Amino acid sequence: MAKLIDGKAIAKDIRNQIKNEIRELKQNYPNFSPRLAIIQVGGREDSTCYVRQKEKAAKEAGIEFMLHKKADSITESELLTSIRELNDNPTIHGFLVQLPLPSHINEKNVVETISPKKDVDGFHAINLGNLAKRNCEPLFLPCTPKGILELLKRSGIKISGKHAVVIGRSDIVGFPVFTLLSRSDATVTLCHSKTENLPELIKTADILIVAIGKAEFVKGEWIKPGTVVIDVGTNAIEDSSKQSGVRWVGDVEFSSASAVASHISPVPGGVGPMTVAMLLQNTVESAKRFLQESRERDIS
Amino acid sequence: MAKLIDGKAIAKDIRNQIKNEIRELKQNYPNFSPRLAIIQVGGREDSTCYVRQKEKAAKEAGIEFMLHKKADSITESELLTSIRELNDNPTIHGFLVQLPLPSHINEKNVVETISPKKDVDGFHAINLGNLAKRNCEPLFLPCTPKGILELLKRSGIKISGKHAVVIGRSDIVGFPVFTLLSRSDATVTLCHSKTENLPELIKTADILIVAIGKAEFVKGEWIKPGTVVIDVGTNAIEDSSKQSGVRWVGDVEFSSASAVASHISPVPGGVGPMTVAMLLQNTVESAKRFLQESRERDIS
Ligand SMILES: NC(=O)C1=CN([C@@H]2O[C@H](COP(=O)(O)OP(=O)(O)OC[C@H]3O[C@@H](n4cnc5c(N)ncnc54)[C@H](OP(=O)(O)O)[C@@H]3O)[C@@H](O)[C@H]2O)C=CC1
Ligand SMILES: NC(=O)C1=CN([C@@H]2O[C@H](COP(=O)(O)OP(=O)(O)OC[C@H]3O[C@@H](n4cnc5c(N)ncnc54)[C@H](OP(=O)(O)O)[C@@H]3O)[C@@H](O)[C@H]2O)C=CC1
Asked: Measuring CA to CA, which residue among A188, A186, A133, A182 is closest to residue B172?
């Protein structure tokens, strides 16, 4: 049976480390006060739930939190103005606009208006571009991919030289996971909906990352014994035995996959909690950068 | 025997198309005059040779050309000032700083100072970032990767669904080739010096791109019969029978590989000529964008 990669426990450790780090920094720099803001447009239930999780985790870690709620009817130009205000607000060290947005707003314009220096989601083209460039360090790594790499590292998985297969090529998960794994010296194959012979390719993986959004799509029999499996998918399927009427499953069929994998991350409790922990980490890194800059200004 | 992918002939066709396009545009817009500039720092012989090739090709196509030669001793800040002047010069539609630079100058600072709107080399982080983002079109694609895709398309090679193996992950060749192939719906494996079992992986390729800079490294026996092979490597090896004392070879052993591949690009005369043709294409695209913008300003 595979070893479980307990994302919940790992994320908790990281959140505790962040909390301690903030506490110590505050002792040395009484004005140090990391602050995260989220702009939420409209009242989608799932968005409200994600925003609440981020708020709770931030506050627990000692990060101040500001929520800017906007009506569904906000114009793109009004939204961009709010973003520019946050860019210019020196008390905010990082912020994000909760996606998805209503269809009358162009997501790209929104993301690219966020200052790359406060882009704690890591979605700005300049941060993604620096991720793709050798010898360049983006200011922020996107949270879910960063969390996946952290899961692998904290589970003692060797990445260098290994063959990683990533299924899904979105710009928030698959593509940046590919890039991070390649930067960590894995040989990486990137697959998607046009890939032929997917089960055959999966069989060649030492590390398998699945981020496609298809409930229990990948079967255990496709997986080579000993493979490390990270399941990013988060799919609701009907289940009348649950109070909510749904049950959450990954993109991997857990029962069959856990019988052959060496390590596997469960859904829920795998990648999900890491995403929020990495958002906090990005916010603190940013606050530390701003602190450093202000100290350098004070000295000079 | 493999079909030869004749980059020289394909590049010539493209340069002729560009020439005709410029001629027609000039008839309709007498002020249309695409102009490319290159900043060359120091007098490296290889750089001088590359710059001369670009100058010759530009002029032949009807693109004006300006060379800014700078002494080896130029400071980084002086160089950045020259770049900003070209950014602001409305008669220049595209420019590049010929690499490599003397070691006292930070290449990243140089590349990131070039306006993304004039970055005809396609190396700016924002252009690379938009290349990595779904639904985003960078203003410029890097020339060598763009040329490789053009070679495949003009040779009638189907890319979608195929398994492409790219060897080399530099930010000017391997990595962006990977990205372009994935955007064209290939399943792509990116390999590098830490890859284990390289010959085994090469055997699984339908399309093989080699960009490592190691003379005749990839052998024909590693290649599956029918594979399409693009050899980017450009390596000088001693050859006393040549007047220059050297002979140019690729990263692939041509004699053995051409016996099994379905198509193969030779060195020289494969990818090399395409790089210059794509630089001209990027320059004309940029000049057309500036023309379009000025017409929109005139109308409004
Ligand atoms: N735990 C967490 O914190 C997070 C979880 N997620 C979850 O991860 C999953 C993926 O999210 P996201 O990347 O945003 O999804 P997207 O819908 O943006 O992308 C899905 C990707 O999967 C590919 N794909 C779809 N079907 C198949 C198939 N049958 N075979 C191979 N590839 C396929 C698509 O290919 P193509 O490009 O060809 O269309 C696409 O590249 C979702 O379940 C989402 O809920 C996402 C973010 C965070
Ligand atoms: N025809 C043209 O117009 C152009 C030709 N070229 C030629 O292409 C070649 C590559 O150029 P460039 O990308 O700039 O080179 P770089 O030196 O920047 O990168 C070489 C890449 O190859 C990898 N590599 C090196 N040795 C091996 C090996 N034994 N097995 C597997 N991978 C290996 C390296 O891996 P790692 O990352 O682990 O170090 C690295 O990613 C050169 O010959 C260059 O002259 C380049 C540009 C334009």
From this structure: A133
Instruction: Say how far apart CA A217 and CA A252 lie, in whole Å.
Output: 6
User: Angle, nearest 10°, between helix axes A271-299 and A143-154?
Assistant: 100
Task: Please indicate, yes or no, whether the overall pTM of this predicted structure exceeds 0.90.
Answer: yes
Task: Kindly list the residues from chain A whose CB atom is less than 8 angstroms away from the CB atom of residue B133.
Answer: 108, 125, 128, 171
Which ligand places an atom closest to the C-alpha of B166? 2
Tell me the C-alpha to C-alpha distance, in Å, between residue A135 and each of B98, B106, B170: 19, 11, 10
Rounded to 5 degrees, what are φ and ψ at B151?
A: -60, -45
DSSP of A44-86: -HHHHHHHHHHHHHHHHHT-EEEEEEE-TT--HHHHHHHHHHH
Q: Answer yes or no: is pLDDT of B298 > 90.
A: no
Strands (E) in B71-162, as ranges, are 94-97
- Could you give the dihedral angle defined by the CA atoms of residues A20, A25, A26 and A31, in that order, rounded to the nearest 10 degrees? -150
Which ligand is in closest contact with the Cα of B267?
2
The enclosing H or E element of B31 equals none
Dihedral sign (CA A45, A48, A52, A58): positive
Question: What residues of A are annotated to the active site?
Answer: 54, 98, 121
CB atoms near residue A107 (< 10 Å)? 15
Total residue count of chain A as it appears in this document: 300
- Distance, CA of B83 to CA of B77 (rounded, Å): 10
Question: pLDDT tens-digit profile of A57-73?
Answer: 999 999 999 999 999 99
CA gap A17, A8 in Å, rounded: 14
Inter-residue contact B33 to B64 (CB < 8 Å): yes
Give the ipTM.
0.96
Distance in angstroms (rounded) separating the CA atoms of residues A222 and A188: 18
Shortest CA distance from A135: residue in chain B = B108
Indicate the angle between helix axes A143-154 and A7-28, nearest 10 degrees.
100
Report CA(B128)–ligand 2 centroid distance (Å): 18
b (16+ CB within 10 A) / e for B8-20: eebbeebbeebbe
Name the residue among A283, A23, A295, A21 with its Cα closest to residue A143. Answer: A283
> Which of A98, A148, A173, A222 to probe ligand 1 with, by most ligand atoms within 8 A of CB?
A173
Percent of chain B with pLDDT over 70: 100
A19, A60 Cβ separation under 8 angstroms = yes
Report which residue type is found at B252.
V
- Enter the tokens of residue B143: 């020339």
CB contact under 8 A, B128 and A127: no
